[in-house]
Amino acid sequence: MKDTMKRLGDAELEIMLIIWEADGPVTSTFISEKLEGKRKWALSTLMTVLSRLADRGFLKCEKVDRNYYFALISEREYKVKESSSILEKLYGNSVNNLVTTLYSGKVISSSDLAELKKLIDEISSKGDE
Distance (Å, rounded) from C-alpha 73 to C-alpha 78? Predict the structure, then answer.
């Protein structure tokens, strides 16, 4: 994972989510169609953002009969890096502080906590194998 990976802006993240979901090379037309109803961008704006993502090392553009965009960083890799950064910056690397904040802010419920406990138990039991 690249330590120098920068955080994606909201618009950039929307585009990367489309590319990651496609799980293969996509064209600007494909991305534009997926953005319909979410963003009203001129094609030139989309192309500028795609170019910036390529310059920053998130995408690779290959021209065959048209430009195809490939993710250079996986969704999982980005989420791990971004989650780690948020956990460190906002919660002092304390998962306990994160969960407490989410629960007290009513972002997660008691049933979410029960699900989390079940997940922790499952992961813990796999570690014993």
Answer: 7
